[in-house]
Amino acid sequence: MAKKQEKEISVEERLKTLYSLQQKLSEIDDIKILRGELPLEVADLEDEIIGLETRIKKYETELKEEETTISHQKQKAKESGLKIEKYKEQLDNVRNNREFDHLSKEIEFETLEIELSEKKVKEFTLEVKNLTEQIEKSKSFLQERGADLAQKKEELDSIVSETKQQEEQLREEVKEIETNVDPRLLQAFKRIRKSARNGLAVVMIERGACGGCFNKIPPQKQMDIKIGKKIIVCEYCGRIMIDPELVGLEEQ
Question: Of 45, 156, 203, 246, which residue is most buried, by most CB within 10 angstroms?
Answer without folding.
Answer: 203
